[in-house]
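Folding follows sequence. Below is one example:
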Amino acid sequence: MTLLTTRGAEEAQWVLCQGCTTPLYRKRWTRGRKVCPECGYHARLTAPERLDQLVDPGTLEPLPFPAVTEDILGFVDTVAYPRRLADARARTGLDEAVVCARAAIDGHPVVVAAMDFRFLGGSLGVGVGQLIAMAAETALVERIPLLIATASGGARMQEGTLALMQMARTSAALGQLDDAGILTISLITDPTYGGVAASFATLADVIVAEPGARLGFAGRRVIEQTIHQVLPQRFQTAEFLLERGFVDLVVPRDRLRAELSRLLAAVAVPPGGATHDGRPVPTVSDPGLLPESDPWEQVRLARKLDRPTTLDYLSMAFTDFQELHGDRSGGDSPAVVGGTARLAGRPVMVIGHQKGHTAAELNQRNFGMPGPDGYRKAARLMRLADKLGLPVVTLVDTPGAYPGADAEERGQAVAIAENLRLMAGLRVPVVTVIIGEGGSGGALALAVANRVLIFGNGVYSVISPEGCAAILWQDPAAAPRAAAALGGSARDLLRLGIVDGVIPEPDGGTGEDPLRAADRLRAALVPLIGELSDMTPQALVADRRERFNAFGTALTVETGLRPLREEVS
């Protein structure tokens, strides 16, 4: 922001917005957290301003870390490095380019490290690397989340290769928090470049960015000079990166504190864990109690557009859902949604296929058919759940994985295979519910679970009836015949032991009474999650592997019952 001072020392100061060049009354601009009310441009904050806006009043406790910065190289450009340091300290009142402290956000304890671009461009040198590593160590010892607000031009050139080494130092520090199961959050502010972007800024479990914040390894000017091309205006902005799966959330400054509080609350287990209202669990475990149904009609019912979607159930059966975006590899499939939520008070990770209720929604969500980025996003969220000890709930509703050329070119088969292996080894409870259609490996990639349920009109099969008819009968009109032969109805699946229980649907189907369907889903999930949460991580993995090892044995095929499992301590 450029300051515009009117005539006379007593008159008010104005600032000129760098986004739209609108003159703004300085006091109003400050009250608005330095966000332009005209165009929404987010001006840079100092580290003290950032902390003041984010943490609970009276909770900030600066960490007593020494800022060790030495002129090892005797570096001199136009000014000697020690002089630059002295000037930066005098100008900012800070010892280094980052401030570390204990604090609380809405009562949730957190270790926070806030970078300050005024201090030598927020550059990453030995002192900053040491402070970030020590903040991570404090979070590790005290077992509380770490929040890092980044603002940096990159590694500090005046410290040469020693500055470069801080990228590895800080990355290793965050790796220790991964091993310990401690949540890390990165708040990306403008700008975040170079060695900071390529280390701790992008290694956090959840990456939140302010609107318009720029994030990248090489800066725009360097790239344009290197490739001799003009880059798009939105290049490297938070919104650009959200679309490409590298950022979870883009949050305006006035909502940041609330959103960070939600993320911190998502991993805080309340005393007593989940609660159950004591009503009968609405699941059927005896196939003889289920009515015979026409297989093709059940396929049609499973595909009805009025059936609640994953997002519908997240709004009705769960609370405090916080959607997280991106596979961190360049994509964010809209056909898969997921994030943290609460189930009867217990924090969980929920991941599901997402279709829609209208033609426009179906097209936007690719008819619930994920590409590799969808499965990789799901895998990222499952790894996060495994790290934080959160039960995983998956909601399956897909015709199958997207059968497009671009999906194949981006590794569709590999993405599905990696999910199957990952889910088999998760150390947390995993429960899957087929809420509509479960098609082929595209469904199974979210369904390697300890317990699998299905709604009464749901279907689950190796291939769609239409696909089966086209391949084996070479006649699309044979789809009803194929549906009967495939054995994908809820009754057949329960008889075969593929599913553990069937959730009866309200009269007319889940679309006729979505709230009652959501109540039944929640009532079915709560006791299962509670039961599985009492098992050790080793027992959960063994239980899941034994479940799938049993499919195809004579006992399973003849009776639909899986062999009794030995207890694993």
Q: What stands out?
A: The chain has a mean pLDDT of 90. Residues 44 and 455 are 51 Å apart (CA to CA). Residues 160-180 form the longest helix (21 residues). The chain is about 40% helix and 20% strand.
